[in-house]
Design goal:
By secondary structure, this protein is an all-alpha fold. It contains 22 helices and no strands. Helix 4 crosses helix 14, helix 5 crosses helix 12 and helix 20 runs antiparallel to helix 21. The longest helix has about 35 residues. The two termini are about 40 Å apart.
Length: about 550
């Protein structure tokens, strides 16, 4: 039976008390006599670069990374790290080209940008869609995967885990972005420390079971015993080519996926929106450095469990009732073998990732609902205090909805992969709308609305094209489908725009100049270091 010892629970309790105490201290120290929307939703001007960077990573990393990515490490190896390492390069692009546009135009939310750049129809359509996705996909899946992971490790019933996670995250979220931002610093410290300790113990386990020469030699053992797990680029015909289709990982759909996620995503960009440009950019760079570290925390342990499984260990733990190997069992299996105390720290790291991610999503849901739905359509005369109150109620209601829906995900197999693919159906259209909205003044509202309406139908068409043609067309890998849909939508937006004579004098086109994208020497040096590390990693593990 899986369980934590008393000492493990003590360590977790210390973490819990520290987070809540620090969050309350931040709230009391930084609260204003009259809290307004800028202060509550953006913590305007009060987040430092390190708080912004830590909060971005805390919002991004959750149970799907610890459980899902470790499972992918078990199944396909280091190649899954492309999602993390390419994100580091993406964050540099977002810092240089996207953030200045948001800051100059005083953007609070992504729908607000769409309203100003296009019209209210495009803005409202996307606001409603984002709310549905954030509540029924993002929030629900984090509750489900997080509670499932905690249930596996502790034996605590699933529903108790869901409710406890909801209460924990809601307490932090109700304090506003300042509390989230600063508590996320501790969450990331716990996450990284616990993750590194788990990685160390995984390598030590390999050393003990296989060669007995320490963790450095254990890394060499992994490379020898699982050589096929240390290649970043898959050739056609590889078992997992459809998941990571060869060179397209470096020059295809993964860029669309990442640029949409990191540059056009409310709960990610929101962390930097309340800061000045220099601070926001520094925060994004700090997040990029942290992204380089994530595969060490989650992928290497997954590969270690794979090697041990190949050596005859965990034969029962890694299979389900039907005898099928379940890669997603890798991280929980590893955690259950950790020593007393260390297991508590690893459990705290996992919980930190889940709670921080939940808090980030809840805050963004509250921001979009309050500013883009409630204020615009329900109560245009709402006061600042009223909107903050509505934002807090939005947190509570959205959490309750997600709690009710979460158990339904038990009926799905591979929940993480399913969600990734189907949420990705909108990425090409959303990114095309933002990209042309940023950098082509002529882009019209009609073109943007067309992109918003066609991105899902086109994605569905390409997914089921082999079926529709009776198998005459080969299945198209997910990332390649995104590239095709993105290119088609760009062409359609171009044709619709140039066919409109009024687009030549589009009053909503953004004023862009080279000075907006000028960066400091320190930013350039840090960016070169990140890109150099990425080049070295892909050269060594190609």
């Amino acid at each position: 039976m899986n369980h934590l010892s008393v000492y493990d629970y003590v360590i977790f309790l210390i973490y819990f008390i520290v987070i809540l105490s620090y969050g309350y201290w931040v709230y009391q120290r930084k609260k204003q006599t009259r809290t307004d929307t800028k202060d509550y939703f953006l913590a305007e001007g009060s987040l430092t670069w390190w708080a912004i960077g830590a909060s971005i990573i805390a919002s991004n990393i959750s149970a799907e990374h610890f459980i899902g990515m470790a499972g992918s490490g078990f199944a396909m190896g280091l190649a899954i790290a492309s999602y993390e390492w390419m994100a580091a390069a993406t964050l540099i692009i977002v810092a240089v080209f996207f953030l200045p546009i948001y800051v100059k135009n005083h953007i609070y939310t992504m729908p607000q940008f769409l309203s100003g750049r296009y019209n209210n129809t495009v803005s409202t359509l996307m606001a409603v869609f984002w709310l549905l996705v954030y509540v029924f996909v993002n929030l629900t899946s984090i509750f489900f995967l997080g509670a499932l992971a905690i249930e596996t490790i502790t034996g605590i019933p699933f529903y108790v885990c869901v409710i406890a996670l909801a209460i924990f995250s809601a307490i932090i979220t109700l304090g506003g972005m300042k509390v989230i931002g600063y508590t996320d610093v501790i969450q990331v410290l716990v996450l990284v420390l616990g993750g590194l300790v788990t990685c160390y113990m995984a390598l030590q386990l390999v050393s003990d079971k296989v060669n007995g020469n320490g963790i450095i030699d254990a890394l060499a053992v992994l490379r020898v015993e699982a050589d096929d797990h240390f290649h970043m680029i898959f050739s056609k015909g590889h078992q997992y080519y459809d998941d990571l289709p060869g060179i397209a990982v470096l020059a295809g759909g993964l860029w669309i996926n990442n640029l949409n996620y990191w540059g056009c995503n409310q709960y990610i960009v929101q962390r930097a929106l309340g800061a000045d440009l220099k601070t926001g950019r520094a925060g994004l760079l700090f997040a990029a450095f942290l992204k380089l570290l994530i595969p060490v925390i989650v992928v290497i342990p997954g590969i270690a469990v794979f090697v041990l499984f190949q050596q005859g260990y965990f034969q029962t733990e890694m299979v389900d009732a039907n005898g099928t190997v379940k890669p997603d069992h890798a991280y929980p299996v590893l955690m259950n073998l950790l020593p007393v105390g260390i297991k508590g720290l690893a459990f705290a790291a996992l919980t930190a990732a889940i709670v921080a991610s939940l808090a980030g999503k809840c805050n963004s849901i509250a921001t979009i609902f309050t500013l883009d739905i409630y204020k615009k359509f329900i109560n245009p005369e709402a006061t600042e205090s009223k909107m903050v109150s509505i934002g807090r109620w939005a947190v509570v209601v959205s959490s309750l909805i997600a709690i009710i829906v979460a158990p339904a995900l038990r009926s799905f197999d591979q929940v993480y992969q399913f969600i990734q693919e189907y949420v990705g159906f909108i990425s090409p259209g959303v990114f095309a709308i933002f990209l042309l909205g940023f950098f082509w003044k002529r882009t019209t509202s009609r073109a943007a609305l067309t992109a918003a309406l066609l991105t899902i139908p086109l994605s569905v068409l390409f997914k089921f094209l082999p079926t529709l043609t009776g198998g005459a067309v080969e299945p198209i890998p997910f990332l390649n489908r995104m590239s095709w849909v993105f290119c088609i939508i760009l062409i359609l937006m171009y044709l619709i725009t140039v066919s409109d004579p009024e687009s030549k004098n589009n009053p909503k086109g953004l004023e862009i100049n080279k000075e907006m994208f000028r960066v400091t020497p320190g930013f350039i040096v840090a960016s070169v270091v990140i890109c150099g590390i990425l080049a070295a990693l892909y050269t060594v593990f190609w």
